[in-house]
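Before a colleague's protein record goes any further, I have to sign it off. Thanks in advance; the entry in question is below:
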Amino acid sequence: MAAGFSAFEAACWNATAPERWGKLRDAVYSRTRRHFGKVKVVILGVVWQLQSRGLLHVHVVVGFEAGGLDEDVIAFYRREMCRSVGEYGFSEGRYGF
């Protein structure tokens, strides 16, 4: 079990993780569109992994259609995701987002 968490607390966190992830994804996508205009951020895949500590961990593959701005959009999206994860109860993790 996660250090400092009871089994009940971990279960509650896990139960709300997908909804919180959706809100985080939507907020960052909206900020990206406001900043760059008509760019398309596409979630190509999402996989939830139950870690040995008992908490869910999400793996995300993201694609972009940004008309030549791909690297700028990717950098912005990643920065915004890293900046925002705490607001939705997530952390950057060992290697960032």
Remarks:
- The mean pLDDT is 86.
- The CA atoms of residues 21 and 39 lie 21 Å apart.
- The longest helix spans residues 7-36.
- DSSP finds two helices and two strands in the chain.
